[in-house]
User: Fold FAD-dependent oxidoreductase from Cryptosporangium japonicum.
Amino acid sequence: MAGDASEAQVLIVGAGSVGSILALELAHHGVPSVVVDRAVNPPQSSDVDYLDSHSMELLRRLRLAAAIRAQGVGAERPGGVEWRSQGLDEPPVLVLTVPSLDDLRGRYAHVDDGSAPVELPQRVSGVRLATGLRAAVGHHPLIDLRLGWTFTGLRVDGDRVVATAIDRGAGPARRIVETRFVAGCDGARSTVRQCLDIPMAALTAPVQHCSVYFRSPDLTRRFGARRPSTVILGALTLEARDDGNDTWVGHLRVAPGDPVTADPEALLRAGLGHRLGTTEILDVTQWDDALAVAEHYRAGPVFLVGESAHRFYPVGDNAATSIGDAVDLGWKLAGVINGWGGAGLLDSYEAERRPRALMDRELVARRLETRRRFGRLAAAGASREFLAGVLRQEIAPADDAGLPEGRAPAVRLDDGTQLFDRLGPQFTLVDLTEVEAGRDLVLAARRRGIPMAHLVVTDPAVRTRWDRRLVLVRPDQRIAWRADDAPADWDAVLDRISGHRARETP
Assistant:
């Protein structure tokens, strides 16, 4: 960079997991980006992320799935949730076991109707996930990673955005980045969102909490090999860190104004009802559980992504929502930058992703209320049998796959490969016709500059399980259009999927 100014197609604010995935998604489509983050090192107290099957499928496209599994919880290890009304020395009220990856693999081995996931879910340390993704970003030739840069503001100037940042490694020095688009991936307290003055619509009045990250060999020994992923103990939620370092995190509700940082260990001991032995406090964070979603995800050329757009309870498995945001915005920005996408393509980002966040918020709110009700009933002296009965009524079986509506059926071909792995990076027209009827459709799309692969499939398994002969699959593996025959107005379909207004008919 010469002087204190530089240019970029896309400026991504935040090099956490979401910002990194967005940068890698853009690069997947040949679009360069600049990523800035005020932190030189990845976070050291991040929560464990649960990546559902669809999230792992999306990351598989970016060739990240194998590396994430190598850093995650082993395939042989089951998870679980323990509900306890009293201290750790009392038996749990209810134990819910989450099957291991090996168990899931066996469960799906004979599912051949297209509904089985290509990738199984994965639990992984948030620290390891963020570190690995940041390393991938740092090594990618299309991504300019600038650490130690604190984003401070922006203004829209015609068709460009002028962003400012402070480079802590150079003085500090003021830096200017002129860019076409800005993506705010800077978390729940997003500076980008504050610059846009976009309010967050909260579901409930905020309740104050804190999270205490700590190391406790004694607690690890207490559970031994059967250590659950999560322990809900009255008003305390305790999560195990699978990093081999005896680390845990406790989420506790606190009264407004409580000096949490004064003695966080005392809070833990009171919540656990158990002597912790030697305990090392690693970090303490405070937050509220307002369960808020931004009223808008976009202001002109500036977008909100991940937790800058939706702030959920930390133990609400928010990763899938955020990863979906990053992938969706990434391929749509690439379409516009590469010249084939119209204005409607970017409008569809908020139209698709905000309703998903609102639905996910309701599910998180339900889980949170179940935990609160359990804590209240336990404090009121409810019997173990009564508590267990309430939990069984309120806790629905989990969907292991978490596959979204509209996702193309996943089928393993006769040669053992996955159909998904044959899809192109942009649009793919899967052609199951006898006469390759999709060829002229793909050529018409390419003449308009829309990148589209033509995948002719003769495999009987696919022909049996896909309900249409021509299926157009989006870059995120969701179905954009399908029919048995070529449409009367293919241009109208192309207008719709590329974000251009439908052409006027004479």
